[in-house]
Amino acid sequence: MKRVLTLLLWLGLAINAAAQTDKGFEISKNLEIFANVYKNLHMNYVDDVDPGKTMKVAIDAMLASMDPYTNYFAESDMEDVKMQVLGQYGGIGSLIHQEGGKIFVAEPYEGLPADKAGLKIGDRIVAVNGESTEGKTNADVSSAMRGQAGTQVTLRLEREGKEFDVTITRAEIRLPNVPYSGMVEGNIGYIRLDEFTQNAAKNVREAFKKLKRDNPGMKGIILDLRGNGGGLMGEAVDIVNIWVPQNELVVETKGKVASKNIKSRTRMPAEDLDIPVAVLINGQSASASEIVSGSLQDLDRAVVIGERSYGKGLVQNILPMPYNSQMKVTVSKYFIPSGRCIQAIDYKHRDENGRAIKVPDSLKTAFSTRHGRTVYDGFGIEPDIEVEHPSSSLLSVALYNRFHFFNYAIKFHREHDTIPAPKDFVITDEIYQDFINYLSDKTYEYTTYTENIISDLRKVAEEEEYMDNLKQQIEQLEKTYKEAKKDDLIRHRDEISQLLQDAILVHYYYRKGSIEGALSQDPDVKKAVEILSSPTEYNKILNR
């Protein structure tokens, strides 16, 4: 028997070695073919070929057949890598946007070089280091403004019709991963986390401790992960650790390479094991955001509120490459405490058009939380309490895309030196009427679904030769609708006012002001306050 087992083991090893040899041969063969194609192209192609550009195109095409997160970064892209991983880059610290072929300052970050140099929202960037921005894209101008910390960049700006130069010393820009924390109604704490970059967990923990210290009667805490696309897994584990005891499993990674199979547990004593916790998520909450929300859900330590998350359960490692380049490679998948994987899209299998497919409902598997609640894998994190959000009106979208909120806010700021604190500032009847007056000579065309239906009705009536009978009724319908459409600015006032308030608050209180100002009208926050303020309801959700 022992001889048989030995023989089978030897045979298995031999087959595996042969398979590895075959695969190694295939790799060597195809690398040789590729090298010869590359060499012959450069030696014989009719026009000159840029070697670096050609290779980058080839690499990108190869990686495109994997998943969207496996990428190659040339040396020139290293600033983008630093931005993604560390939340920092060398630059002036300002958002910009393109409008009508021109580049404008969209928002200088508080306390950073652009802000200290006096740049204002709405300044037009005419030139960077003497080179005109005419015909340049956002990416072009952003790249020109970035550079090594300590170096200088000169911007020619236009403000209210006057041009002037500003020389700014670049700095290592670190974007705050916690742009705002504070209290909302009902004595409930609130922390907004934008990215899982370095020190995210430390910053969330410090914000939580400060809220507890300054508000001894705090009844609960809201962690807002909406729009947070993820980042460093270790930071996610340490954030869970704030409310979960030491040595709890938070996430496990499993992949082809055994060394990538890691169980990540909480490392420190928790900050608070009893305070009720609510986590807000939406369709843009991904990766590390799903580790935090999903593991707290699996451990029955928090109520998850909002919309279903994105479903990114793939783990990337950044690998060093020759000539200061790097490669980000998907090496494993995330599994949270219940055992479920949060990945929602199957990049290994594609449809007839080459598009990756979502995990079908038939392949979803049920898992259980610590208290026995049923949760499912294969489609991100489903909230415990789903909050419906009405879709944006076509009018609001048109006004936003035409930059009318942005430009009116510039006008408003020039005309008003001060406004109330963010939580007290509201769009009054007077402000709203002024906005309507501002729009009177502006264009913001939009076609509603009702208009499309009326237009289709006219076409069908003409095609089927009913127009002679229906012409009068259709024309009356069109006339009635046009009259009704004039009231859209009144009909959608609440939604438009919120967008207008946000655009104005940024001028006076930076981004943290716009976040604070929106909280009182936020349906997800309102629901979280309602749940956290009722211990009976909170416990009922986590123990059902």
Description:
There is one protein chain. Mean pLDDT is 89; it is low at 1-11. Strands 10-11-12-15-16-23 form a six-stranded mixed sheet, with helices on both faces. Strands 1, 13, 14, 17 and 18 form a five-stranded antiparallel sheet that branches. It has five domains: 24-65, no CATH class; 88-174, PDZ domain (Pdz3 Domain, Roll), CATH 2.30.42; 180-386, 2-enoyl-CoA Hydratase, Chain A, domain 1 (Alpha-Beta Complex); 394-446 and 492-527, no CATH class; 449-485. With 544 residues, it is of the alpha+beta class. The longest helix has 43 residues, at 2-44. The protein contains 17 helices and 23 strands. It starts with a helix and ends with a helix. The protein has helices spanning 2-44, 51-63, 78-86, 113-116, 138-145, 200-214, 233-240, 288-298, 394-401, 404-415, 429-439, 449-463, 467-485, 488-491, 493-519, 523-532, 535-543, and strands at 71-73, 88-91, 94-99, 102-108, 124-128, 131-132, 152-159, 162-169, 171-174, 180-184, 188-192, 220-224, 249-255, 262-265, 277-281, 303-306, 314-320, 326-335, 345-350, 356-358, 366-368, 374-376, 385-386.
